[in-house]
Amino acid sequence: MNNAKGSEDIDVKPEISSDARLVILPKKEKINVKLLGEQEISRVGNGIYLILEGTTNIKEHLADISHFRFRRVREIPPIKSRDPEVRAKKVFAIVWYQFASPTAGQKKRVQRLIHRAPCIRLRPGVLLFPHLRSKDRERYLKKNKERSVLGSKEFSAVLEEMGGNVARWTRLQLVNQASNELLYASLEKMSKSEIGSLEAKLRTLKEAAVEGEGIRKKLKERYSEISSIYRNLRSKYEVVRVVWGVDLRRELKRTYNLMLRTKHVISS
Questions:
Q1: How distant, in Å, are the alpha carbons of 143, 208, 239, 242 from that of 136?
Q2: Which of 113, 166, 237, 248 has its CA 20 to 30 A from that of 191?
Q3: Same domain (yes/no): 158, 232
Q4: Rounded to whole angstroms, how far apart are CA atoms 198 and 255?
Q5: What is the mean pLDDT of each run of 10 residues along the chain (268 residues)?
Q6: β-strand pairing of 165-174 with 126-130
Q7: 205 vs 201: CA distance, rounded Å
Q8: Model pTM greater than 0.90?
């Protein structure tokens, strides 16, 4: 199982056996390089490892660092269930991606895709998606036909069309409470960043309109771009609310009110 390759490329996506765990480290965490010489651990990519369950020294080391640990499961529970234990057994998909020399256009397009996806960034280039039953995908991801939300499969396909190196693992479940808490912290961090960035753009645009900077047509075009981002985020976080139970409607309402004030200034 040992694989201490130095490249970040994932040439062949390894299968996750029943006795293996997929471990993903947040950006600032590092694993002890001495462990990479053991047969029970394999480096899959930058910050991504496969370990055999029950390996004492590796588990002891992981206990001292923040990490996400997943196992592969067969069953995909429904989103809606009266049984709280069933609702708690969420299943995920992981998407890893990388571009050899990403252009500014590629970076911008990837960010736009992320705005349309109910994903959580676990570390740079690694995103976690809900893995849903086909009925739930149709109901929640494709609810708005004009502005559908991207699942992990569609997201990965677009990245591959763009020339990215992509790997995707499905039917994954978190195996410990610490990973679950870290997941929700990552979701909170990402949502604050996305909504905060959008509001910063609106404030900048509003100030430019107040001070008479720029042609009104350009200001309206910029407002239209920001408005499109908002609609994508609204659809995205509606899925997040249903799947993860995190309600950001108050924050999005605040952003919407800022949009209305900005639009009024541009139009006046």
A1: 10, 43, 11, 11
A2: 166
A3: no
A4: 8
A5: 48 71 90 72 86 76 88 88 74 94 93 95 95 86 74 95 94 89 94 97 94 84 96 94 93 98 92
A6: unpaired
A7: 6
A8: no
